[in-house]
Amino acid sequence: MKHVPIKLGPLALLLAVIAICLTILAFLSVTTGQADLRLAQRYADTVTERYALEAEGQQFFADVCEGRAPEAGRAEISGTLGSAAQETGQLRLDYTLKRNAKGTYDIAAWKFIRDWEEDTELDNIWTGE
User: Fold this and answer.
1) CA nearest 86: which of 74, 94, 75?
2) pLDDT averaged over consecutive 10-residue blocks of the chain (129 residues)?
3) Would you say residue 123 lies in a domain?
4) Distance (Å, whole) CA 46 – CA 53
5) Domain limits for position 89
6) Cβ distance 96 to 111 under 8 Å?
7) Rounded (10°) CA dihedral 45, 49, 54, 57
8) What is the DSSP secondary-structure string of 68-102?
9) What pTM does this model have?
10) Number of domains in the chain
11) Does 88 reside within a domain?
């Protein structure tokens, strides 16, 4: 019986390529997972902030409708909730309440607003000049 020698060169090269590919895929999976976690946390913070402002606004609206707020009795009430948020550029609630013919209030405007500044700094883009 004749023994044929096994050449390990091509097999070793194939295994090395497979190991490199698996390492790259593992790295990409971890970084994608971390990015998804950061995005989910930012979304959760935004939703929590929005619902807190909504609850505060609904409580204020109930107080106005029941006459417990100092603004009750006026024909139109406008304002902003979330004054601490205005300073940090976070979410705020702008509202307008109007008195109707029955003597109760209707919501004329109820908007969530987030101020932002556009990033206009373009480092390496040619302006055409």
Assistant:
1) 94
2) 80 95 98 97 90 92 88 86 59 90 90 78 69
3) no
4) 11
5) 10-114
6) no
7) 180
8) -STTTTSSEEEEEE-HHHHHHT-EEEEEEEEE-TT
9) 0.67
10) 1
11) yes
> CB 119: neighbour CB atoms within 10 A?
6
Which amino acid, 114?
R
Indicate whether 77 belongs to any domain.
yes
22's CB contacts (< 8 A; 6+ apart) are none
> What confidence tens digit (pLDDT) does each residue in 98-107 have?
988 888 899 9
Return the amino acid letter for 15: L
pLDDT at 83: 54
> 68-84 burial by CB neighbour count: b if 16+ within 10 A, else e?
ebeeeeeeebeeebbee
30-50 burial, b for 16+ CB within 10 Å, e for fewer?
eeeeeeeeeeeeeeeeeeebe
Residue 92 CB neighbour total at 10 angstroms: 19
Tell whether the torsion through CA atoms of 81, 85, 89 and 90 is positive or negative: negative
- The residues, ordered by sequence, that sit 6+ positions from 61 with a Cβ below 8 Å of its Cβ are 95, 97, 105, 107
Q: Residue 50 domain-assigned?
A: yes
